[in-house]
Design goal:
It is a single chain. By secondary structure, the chain is mostly beta strands. The protein has one domain: Thrombin, subunit H (Beta Barrel), CATH 2.40.10.220. 10% of the residues lie in helices and 41% in strands. The protein contains two helices and six strands. A six-stranded antiparallel barrel has the order 1-2-3-6-5-4. A hairpin with a 4-residue loop joins strand 4 and strand 5.
Length: 125
């Protein structure tokens, strides 16, 4: 603008941030998990080791479905519950991880109506 002789009072621009790079840094690289094994810490099935199939995964957050017939199993999970002895299975590897229950909802419609959607955030391997 100055080269063309136009005078304008514009604010200074800070160094441009690499927005795309920042979002990639915030995402946690996580291998695709097909199922998990967890030892129940409370409830009538305390101490029992159960395996759950992963239905959805986004980064370090996984979702699984607990069938409506296994309400006692769903009752063993509460939001905020720490899962320290979790084992994760993937096509590439089996590894131990820690997680926290981040969501537990009853499915209200569709073919899985009455089942529980259990969300777990993996916070360490």
């Amino acid at each position: 603008i100055e080269k063309q002789g136009i005078k304008a009072d514009l604010p200074l621009v800070d160094e441009a941030r690499d927005v795309e790079g920042e979002s990639e840094e915030r995402e946690v690289d996580m291998i695709d998990i097909s199922s998990i094994s967890v030892e129940l810490a409370n409830g009538p099935r305390k101490g029992e080791k159960i395996e759950l199939q992963v239905t959805f995964q986004l980064g370090n957050k996984i979702s699984t479905i607990i069938p409506a017939q296994q309400k006692d199993l769903a009752d063993a999970f509460k939001i905020g519950l720490r899962l320290s002895g979790m084992q994760c299975f993937s096509p590439l590897a089996i590894f131990n991880a820690r997680g926290i229950v981040s969501g537990l909802k009853i499915i209200t419609s569709g073919p899985r109506r009455g089942s529980h959607a259990l969300d777990i955030t993996i916070d360490g391997v």
